[in-house]
Amino acid sequence: MTFTLNPRFAATFPPPVMEARRWLDGVIHPDDRPLINVSQAAPVAPPPEALRAAMADALMTQPESHLYGPVLGLPALRARVADEWTRSYGGTVQASQVAITSGCNQAFAAAIATLAGDGDEVIIPTPWYFNHKMWLDMQGIHTVPLATGDSLLPDPDAAEALITPRTRAIVLVTPNNPGGVEYPAGLVHAFYDLAQKHGLALILDETYRDFDSRTSAPHDLFSDPDWADTLIQLYSFSKAYRLTGHRVGAMTASVKRLAEVEKFLDTVTICPSQIGQIGALWGMENLGQWLAGERAEILDRRAAMAEGFPALDGWRLLGCGAYFAYAEHPYDLPSNEVAQRLVGAAGLLMLPGTMFMPEGSAGGKRQMRIAFANIDRAGVQELFRRLSNLSI
Questions:
Q1: CA-based torsion, 187, 193, 199, 203: positive or negative
Q2: Residue 42's pLDDT is what?
Q3: What's the pLDDT at 202?
Q4: Alpha-carbon gap, residue 109 to 119, rounded angstroms
Q5: Domains in the chain: boundaries
Q6: What are all long-range contacts of 87-95, with beta carbons under 8 Å and residues at least 24 apart?
Q7: DSSP letter (8 states) at residue 183
Q8: Peptide bond before 178: cis, by omega within 30 degrees of 0?
Q9: What whole-number distance in Å separates Cα of residue 165 and Cα of residue 40?
Q10: Does domain 67-286 have CATH number 3.40.640.10?
């Protein structure tokens, strides 16, 4: 039987997290050295009990929660996001400028679907979030890498040199996945000005905004009355409220663009999960203090990561923030081989830089991403102990 396959899918690399999990096959971890999994940036604990109770109550008492809902999301949740963004960023965001999606990955896919087609170009700083690259590859859109160097901060002048008549958008992720770095507000605004100048969209993925270390707004883009002509902001409720399995994200953009996004969403999922949206709304309304505690814990783990690296012989920390540390390893082997050896030699599962960089990149061969959101300070210290005793 002939297996017919879209050649764009054949050319797209397999999901990296799933590939890394296969490295665990057949490996036995002794009781005194259990596996430390720092490969995936997602909470593994369930939502707080009160949130689960609210979702369970909706399941039992709200018949409409089992039906199709509005394609662009529940009006109450859209309004709540708009109010929160207006309060925290300044400027004005209307509920009609917010769409709820089935996770932030879908928000990115929907945004790109409205912006670019076969042969168009999108500029993304490297190291990049691999799911962004995968979606662009599957759509026949050329990913233009923007090197960031050791700072992991993209340069607007370098980005401008990459713009061609086929460029449709620039993508930024802050706090960054995989690099962890928080982009300064001035840098974000410089990219906004660049996108405005060239008539491009600026896609700003703020999945990890709730764990930004700054007390001030991470940018002021919404204060521009014309922000919707340029900015497409993405967000995820998964990390803030531990709703990963319920797939709830958001896109903030112009009303005109969301009318096009509605076409995409209606043909893919029809509507986001009703129960997930109910949970996200309840979380926004009731879990502010709890989320502040979650942020404080993540910032403490970030501090533990930063404190541990100077004592780790040969390793160099390049970026650290939100859920991630991004580092350079000291070994002669490429990072994809180092990552696989770490599983058996140290009981550590982390992702190599080769998964976040263009194929053949010299930098990717020296780099590793450590997602520390699911290990506390003691777990971070154990991770460093194993790395310091490692022989590869």
A1: positive
A2: 85
A3: 98
A4: 16
A5: 7-46+290-388, 67-286
A6: 88/217, 89/217, 89/219, 89/220, 89/221, 89/222, 89/223, 90/217, 90/220, 90/222, 90/223, 91/220, 91/221, 91/222, 91/223, 91/224, 91/225, 91/227, 92/222, 92/225, 93/222, 93/252, 94/255
A7: P
A8: yes
A9: 36
A10: yes
Is residue 238 within 8 Å of residue 248, measured between CB atoms?
yes
Average pLDDT per 10 consecutive residues for the chain, totaling 392 residues? 88 90 90 92 91 97 95 98 96 97 98 97 97 97 97 98 98 98 98 98 98 95 97 96 96 98 97 97 98 97 95 95 96 95 95 95 94 94 93 78
CATH code of 7-46+290-388, in short, is 3.90.1150.10
Q: Give the Å distances, CA to CA, from 262 to 23, 110, 116, 320.
A: 39, 9, 16, 36
Strands 231-236 vs 121-126: parallel, antiparallel or unpaired: unpaired
Contact call for residues 367 and 335 (beta carbons, < 8 A): yes
The pLDDT value given to residue 390? 85
Place of tokens 């797209």: 12
For position 231, what pLDDT does the model report? 98
Amino acid at 372: F
Position 166: which residue type? R
pLDDT on residue 1 = 66
